[in-house]
Specification:
mainly alpha, 59% helix, 217 residues
């Protein structure tokens, strides 16, 4: 399943922003996978922290093969040592187990989250061990499919914005200016900034000042 958007969102963004309109024309429709199981999504994001996308995919496949289904019952039945055996650290295994306990004990209500506004969802998710604001924002977008997620803490989004708008730096004030312009469809705009940052339009460059380092490069 992919993040759901269509002509309504695309046309709105094109009318609001000429440079983004040009990017949308060149890149075309973007298919980004979503995981609409909230428990699984939280665990997946914890697993993926500070490792490569490839490593995350490998470990995630191992977890699925070992547990069958990723839910509170299977995580708690597995235990921390078994979770570590698929390739995650003790700390991440502890975070995941703690999350499973909170769900099992009713401290964290998975169903209730779906009905809350974005700010409350971020607050609830980031209260979990191992989940910060950025991770909560990614879950908001790639699980709950909220339409207006725009993460200042995402370095790739900032890079994409520098490339699209020719800024040397995206400070908070500049970021908020674009948030206001692209709302209420910032999630779709984010997809395009990620695409640009990843090299979807080869002729576009990053305008950030070059860092001059000492010693061998």
């Amino acid at each position: 399943m992919f993040f759901q958007y269509g002509e309504k969102e695309i046309e709105y963004l094109k009318q609001k922003d000429k440079r983004l309109a040009d990017v949308i024309e060149k890149v075309g429709f973007i298919e980004r996978e979503v995981d609409t199981d909230l428990f699984s999504s939280v665990v997946h994001h914890i697993v993926g922290q500070q490792i490569s996308t490839k490593a995350q995919a490998t470990i995630w496949q191992r977890m699925n093969d070992n547990l069958g289904v990723i839910n509170a019952d299977t995580v708690l039945a597995a235990g921390i040592p078994h979770l570590q055996s698929v390739g995650i650290t003790f700390k991440k295994a502890d975070y995941i187990t703690d999350f499973a306990k909170k769900v099992k004990e009713g401290i964290f209500d998975l169903k209730e989250i779906w009905n809350k506004p974005d700010e409350e969802v971020i607050a609830d998710l980031s209260s979990l061990k191992g989940v910060g604001v950025w991770t909560a924002e990614m879950i908001l977008l790639f699980c709950l499919q909220r339409p207006n997620v725009f993460s200042y803490g995402d370095l790739a989004i900032q890079r994409g914005m520098r490339m699209v708008y020719h800024h040397r730096k995206i400070d908070h004030k500049t970021f908020e200016k674009y948030r206001r312009r692209l709302s209420p469809y910032c999630s779709v705009a984010s997809l395009y900034f990620w695409a640009v940052a990843g090299g979807a339009i080869p002729e576009m460059k990053d305008y950030a000042p070059k860092r001059i380092g000492k010693g061998n490069s």
